[in-house]
Each structure stands twice: as C-alpha cells, then as structure tokens.
Design brief:
Elements (H helix, E strand, L loop, with lengths): L1 H21 L2 E3 L8 E3 L14 E2 L13 E2 L5 E4 L5 E4 L6 E3 L19 E4 H9 L27 E8 L4 E6 L4 E6 L13 E7 L1
Parallel strand pairs: 1-2
Antiparallel strand pairs: 3-4, 5-6, 7-12, 8-11, 9-12, 10-11
C-alpha cells in the first residue's frame, strides 16, 4: 500500500516539478514554447460584450462585484507560428491614404530640383487630427465624440499600388512615408483624369 501511494505521489509531483522548472503550460504538447502553448484549436465559450461588467478591475485585479465595464480597445493578431499578440487600436490592417493633390508644377516648394517630395504620413496625420478635435472636421455625424485613431509613422508600411506612368516616373517611397517622384515631361506634363496615385498604408 505504501509503495502504491509513493508511486501515486511521484506521478503527481513530477509534472508539477517540470511545470515549476519551465513555468510554461502545454496542451497536447510536452514542449511548450510560450507560457501557454495549445497544440490544436482554442475555444472560449463566453466572451464579454462592450459595456458588460467584468471581474477584472481597472488595476488588473479581481473584482467580484464586476464594477469595471468592458471597453475593448485592442485587436488580437497572430504570426505564422500562432503566437498571439495585440495591436494598439481597433483599426484595419490596411487602408487607403486620404486623397491629396500631387503637385506637377516645378515652381511648387515640393520640387527639389530633380524630383518632388511629399510626406505622405504627415498629410494623413494632418487630415485625421484636425485641431481642435473633433469639431474642425469638414463634416461628421452629430454623435461623433472622439477623434479618428492615428497610427504612428513607424508602425506603417507604405505602398503605391497605381500611378499614371505617362506623367510620373521614378516613383519611390521610403520607410518613413516620404514619396519621391519625377515627371516624364517636367516642362509640360500631360495631366488627365488618370493622373493620380493610389497609396495604401498597412499596419506592421
């Protein structure tokens, strides 16, 4: 009987010892690589809705009275290995840059002698953060009370998905969102209804 109890206790303590050493928990895996590693699908049967009381207070501690209302402001994302992380705001992974007019006149201050340079990020920032906020928006619905979310410059990738190659040439955009382009015919560019660029921002 004593031998049986010893074997039972050993069987219970060994997994706990391994858990204490690794400080990681694995489900269907003996080699967890994160604090919680699930090899398979994950199900959460109950998720709080916005405005519902939750048992985690504003300090991150337990509150049985559910005095803190659920107010989600993060988006869960995952990499190719399934490691879950978060994005800092509820926002699409990519979006088109707001419309702006691209200069084609070489007398414009954006012309640097051989090419034009436009700070795409700054143009986006200026349109999304008018001052004062939010009353200075050109138009908004009456119940809009908060400003549009703005992604930091370094948290974006920048793509030019279309441009009029009869007018623009040497189109480039750097890691900070600055667009550079030249004109096919600087003295007399052939501007038409097709003379525009499509610019897409993608969250990293």
């Amino acid at each position: 009987m004593k031998r049986y109890l010893f074997g039972l206790l050993t069987g219970l303590l060994l997994p706990l010892t391994a858990l204490a050493q690794t400080e990681r928990v694995g489900v269907n895996t003996r080699t967890p690589t994160e604090d919680m590693d699930v090899k398979g699908s994950l199900r959460i049967q109950t998720l709080p809705k916005k405005g519902e009381g939750i048992t985690t207070n504003s300090s991150g501690n337990y509150d049985s009275g559910k005095g803190n209302l659920y107010a989600p402001d993060r988006v869960l994302v995952a990499n190719q290995h399934g490691v879950v992380g978060m994005m800092n705001a509820v926002w699409p992974l990519f979006f088109y840059m707001p419309s702006i007019v691209l200069p084609t006149d070489t007398s414009d201050p954006a012309y640097l002698g051989t090419a034009f340079e436009i700070d795409l990020y700054q143009k986006y920032y200026d349109q999304f953060t008018p001052s004062p906020i939010p009353s200075a928006y050109t138009a908004r619905n009456p119940s809009a009370t908060t400003p549009l979310p703005v992604v930091a410059r370094g948290d974006l990738d920048y793509f030019v998905t279309y441009y009029d190659n009869a007018v623009f040439s040497n189109v480039q955009v750097d890691d900070t969102g600055r667009l550079r382009y030249s004109l096919v015919n600087p003295s007399s560019p052939d501007v038409t209804e097709k003379t525009f660029m499509n610019v897409v921002f993608r969250r990293k």
